[in-house]
Structures are given as structure tokens and as C-alpha cells.
Amino acid sequence: MSKQDEKSEGPCVRGLDSQNLEIINWRNATETVKYHFDVFHGEQTTQQEVFLSSVKPILPHILKGQNASVFAYGPTGAGKTHTMLGSSDQPGVIPRAVREVFNLVKAKDEDDGWDYSIGMSYLEIYNEKVLDLLSPSSQDLPIREDKDKNILIPGLTHTTISSFADFDKHFVPASLNRTTASTKLNQRSSRSHAILLIKPHRQQTGKLYLVDLAGSEDNRRTGNQGIRLKESGAINLSLFTLSKVVDSLNSGTAIRVPYRDSKLTRLLQDSLGGSAHSVMITNIAPEYKYYFDTFSALNFAAKSKLIVNKPFTRETVAVPVLPGDFSSWIFDSQPCHSLFPQELKEKQKELESKALLFSRLAGEKSSTVQEPAFKNNTAPLQRKQSNATKPNKQQAVVQPLQGQLEGTPPDGKENIKENGWESQLDTSVLEQSRKKILQILNTGSLKELKGLQQIGDKKAKLILGWREIHGHFTKVDRENVSYLLFYHVTPQPYFVFSGSLTSGFSLWGEDFNFLVLTLCMICCFAVGRSGES
Ligand SMILES: Nc1ncnc2c1ncn2[C@@H]1O[C@H](COP(=O)(O)OP(=O)(O)OP(=O)(O)O)[C@@H](O)[C@H]1O
């Protein structure tokens, strides 16, 4: 919280325990939306605790030939640079991680006779240009991919560092080269994404990316104009692409992950999905004025958490060339040198997709059906009465378009409750709709499943998989009453896109988002009612 909580409204979000937090539901201020993460760090957490719990555990993987990355993501001014860089008395993730890599490599050196040295590169992506922070006079650098799908930047300075002091000597002045500027929300706002690359010089090592992203920005509040506005456009675009990449990785069915749509995602391609150990730290600010930034950052974090990565060893010894794509095989510390029979390959693929399906279903189940396992003994999170006479723009009371969000999974796309609607319906009609849906769930083809409200390609496939493994569904939950209602009115999936619009446009400002959503809803109702749909 900033020192001056001008309107004394209290926080809009708070931690419940070390993994769970809740935020007030903007659709209904008497409710909260709850999120479950690997770790939640509150205000009292030290930099060391963040490092020890969330970052240190992934570092040994780079010495086994696997890539790793740590990102700080979140709205402008929420503390990303503080977390990643810190200050001399409170060093952040970057200095601590580099020190730890030196320790790990040194231990290897002593145990296994490694002749260790470590290389570093440091760049920023500013206005979609890749700039070398270790060589500030250089121009926009190209991003290339080698035949093994490693991402390379020809011309980027790669400096060998022999100790932490040596790293500091290069890193501190280079950090000053990063583009920062003052905005209304942060006196020293990062206008670029800064990416530090650390790579031990050995054959079998992966690389470590430590990334301080620029903040997502709502320009009505940053007061950005001119060049700041242009920067902001580039920042928001690359973060939007990051979100599309996450969606695409999550769907598991997308043919093309849009890595190439921004320099940020292109550069991090081999360290984001698939083959890397990734930690995303989401910084949020608890004040009401950041409510929508916080809400969308939490949603992004929650959907990023669903990605299942399969790290493999970047081995430079010759591996027999096999027909087909083996890039998704999991090579842990032991690289695989033998030929796999085709059947084994197919079995492995089947097992992997089942494991993926299970973890997805478990993830969806925990976020849609079960309440996270925590006890909330604290007083309800409620907004205090504001003393301010002028209503805060962010507090606009919006009539719920989609009902309450309680129990909604983090991407907000499904399980929408509509209080009061059920009572207006004849129960026999509801029962009939339930039966219809159950029948489609149990016997419907992929196409028929996709005809259901809120069921897209991904969910239809998950339903088919679930049916195959567990047999028939037995009942349609009461929770889905709004779904039943809309199915009854018209069996067209016009609600499907509302979730993606919400996440997609929220970067541009919620007013625009509401406008688009409201227009869509009106059109859909009109079409549905007229029976033409
Ligand atoms: N946990 C914290 N403890 C103390 N100070 C903090 C903390 N988090 C942030 N700050 C301070 O808040 C201010 C804004 O933080 P910071 O610059 O890290 O935000 P940011 O998310 O990187 O913003 P931007 O996206 O605009 O670059 C800084 O002065 C920073 O020192």
C-alpha cells in the first residue's frame, strides 16, 4: 500500500494463507473471488524469502542442461523491478540468483572437476527493438533460431564473468542504460522489458533468463502522452502477445503458438513453454485504484499456472537422428541415446497426453468445482466507505451481465451463476434442459459438444477424454443454471467469446471492454430472441 491510502478504503485484495488470496468481486461487492497459487507472498515477505521459496529451487536445472526463466509480471508501479533487481540493502532475485549459480557451478567444479566460467548477456526490448545493454551504442539486433530451435541473437555481447563481483561490475552500469521514465504512477517506470541471460560455459548447460517486464499500463491513469504513449502501446502489445502465447500453450491444441508476434515472446520462445522451468512472479498493488489491474494480473497468473512444461536436456553430444519429432521427450539428467521403437514412441505420446489431460482436469476441477483448501477465519474483505465525495472511476457500479463470479475459474469463462433466474423458470423446463445436456455430454460427438454453451474445442476434447476414462456423467450441477437457461433460450454458444474479450481488451481499459461486451450481449440477445440464430 502506498503511504497515503487517500480515501482510506482499505485493500481490495488480501492473502488468506501462504497459497491463497481473495479479491473483492467487482460484480458484487459482498463477495470475493479466490485464487490458489503455488506461493502467495504478503507485505511482510523479505526478498530472501521470495528467492528461497520460488527461485532457488529451479536453478540447479540449468546445470543439467535445461533452460530456466524467472519473470516479474504485473501492472506498472507494483514492484517488479524491486523484486527482480532490488536495492543494495535489499537485493532482489537477479543478484541472488547469479550468486547462487556461481555457488552451484563452483560446487560442480570441486566435485566433478569442471573448469567453470559463466557468461552473461543483458538486453532490453524497447519499442519492439532489441537493444544490447552491455553495448549501448548498438542498434536493433535480429533474433534468429538455429536448426535445434535454440533462439540466438547474433551480435549480442556475451561477457565472461569469473565472480559475483565481476558480474556486479558489468551489470550495475548496464542497468543504468535501461530506458526508464517518470509516469504518474511510478517515478522511475521501466519503459522496456529487461532480460538478463546467464549461461555457464559447459557443453551440457541450459540458460537462465531473469526478466523484469515493463508494466501493463492503463494510460488514463499513467497520464502518458507522446513518446510515453507510444512506448506504452509497444509494452501493452507485447504483454498481450504474451497472454496469447499462454492461451495457446494452455489449449494444447493450437497448431501455431504466436511466439513470433512480438520480440518478447520470440526471444523467450525456448524458455517460456515446452522445454523450460519457468517461474512467474506476479506483482500486485492492493489499493482500490489498482483494482482492475490487479484483477487482470491475477487472471493472467492463474491461466499461466495451468501450462504444463516438459523440460528436456539440451545435450550437445550426438543423439541418433530419429524419424519424427522427439522434441517433447523428457530427458532428465540422463540423455537418451538409444533408438525407440515406433510403438514405444506412440505409447509415450499417449501417456503424455493422458497425463496432460489429467493435470488439466485436476486444475479445472480445483478451480471450478472445489473451493481451494483453506480456511478463511478472517473477517470478510469489504470495502470501507470512502470519504471522498467524487466517486472513483474504477468503482463504477456495473449491473452484472453474467451473474456472480464466485466459484468462477480464474479465466472467468465458465460456471456463471445467475441468482434469481432459476426461480423464474419452470422447474420442469430446467429438468428437461438438464437431461438434454447430460445426454449430449454422454453421447454427443465433438461437434455436438461444441454446440453447447461455453464449450469450445478444448473443453469438448476434455469432455470426450473424461468420458473415455471415467465413463458417463451422472448429473448436471445446479451451479450451471445460467448455462441451462441460455441453452433453453437458444442453443447457440454466444457466451463463449465473452471470456476472451474480457482478458484481451482489459489491457486497453475496462470501459472499452464493457462497451464491447455490452454491445455483443445486446446483439446476441436480439439474435437469440428473434429465433434466427
Ligand atoms: N515490496 C516493496 N518494498 C518496498 N518498496 C517497494 C516494494 N515494491 C515496490 N516498492 C517501491 O515502489 C516503487 C515502484 O516499484 P517498481 O519500480 O519496482 O515498480 P515496477 O512494477 O517495476 O513498475 P514499472 O512497471 O513502472 O517499471 C519503487 O520506488 C520501489 O522501490
From TrEMBL:
Q: Name one GO biological process term.
A: mitotic spindle organization
The record's section on InterPro entries has:
Kinesin-like_fam (IPR027640), Kinesin_motor_CS (IPR019821), Kinesin_motor_dom (IPR001752), Kinesin_motor_dom_sf (IPR036961), P-loop_NTPase (IPR027417), RuvA_2-like (IPR010994)
Q: Cellular component per GO?
A: microtubule; microtubule associated complex
What UniProt keywords apply to this chain's record, in alphabetical order?
A: ATP-binding, Cytoplasm, Cytoskeleton, Microtubule, Motor protein, Nucleotide-binding
Q: Does the keyword RNA-binding apply?
A: no
Q: Which family does it belong to?
A: Belongs to the TRAFAC class myosin-kinesin ATPase superfamily. Kinesin family.
What's the protein name? Kinesin-like protein
State the organism of origin: Lates calcarifer (Barramundi)
Q: Which gene encodes it?
A: KIF22
